Amino acid sequence: MTGPVEERPGTGAPSEGAPAQGAQTGGAPAEGGGQRRSGLRNPDKAVRGLGAGTLALEALVLLLAIQPIRVVGGDLSGAALGAIVALAVACVALAGQMKRAWAWHAGTVLQGLLLLSGLLHWSLFALGVMFALVWAYALHVRRVILG
């Protein structure tokens, strides 16, 4: 289909013949129409998924990094190992709480704790820097999508 699209009466489904939503303004939403800025069906849910996915990936990387850190980085103290496991558990728990507004702030605190755990082992600081940058990007995307 190459022509303009209009909504079929009574179905809510598009059909050919009328201009598409936002066609007059070059794709931008109409003023005062209450339309979404991002074009997503549910921007809140998309942003929550981004945050939860980021934290889940962080937990997985932390747990999978234990053995390479032990082999390449030398001694991994019990405190460092405990910090890794505790941070991974916190990431998983927080990923399930992303519906709450405070979870984004708690995620930022979690990144700071990972950076501080770099005092226990240098490789944890490196992981902290990487995930702090990823979290900063997730916060940026959240701000752009939700406004």
UniProtKB/TrEMBL annotation:
Q: Which domain of life is it from?
A: Bacteria
The answer on whether this UniProt entry bears the keyword Membrane reads yes
Ranges that cross the membrane = 46-66, 78-96, 108-138
Task: Tell me any Pfam family this protein matches.
Answer: DUF4233
List every stretch annotated Disordered: 1-43
Keyword Oxidoreductase on this protein? Answer: no
Q: Where is the composition biased (Low complexity)?
A: 16-28
List UniProt keywords, sorted A-Z: Membrane, Transmembrane, Transmembrane helix
| Protein name (database record) | DUF4233 domain-containing protein
Q: Which organism is it from?
A: Micromonospora chersina
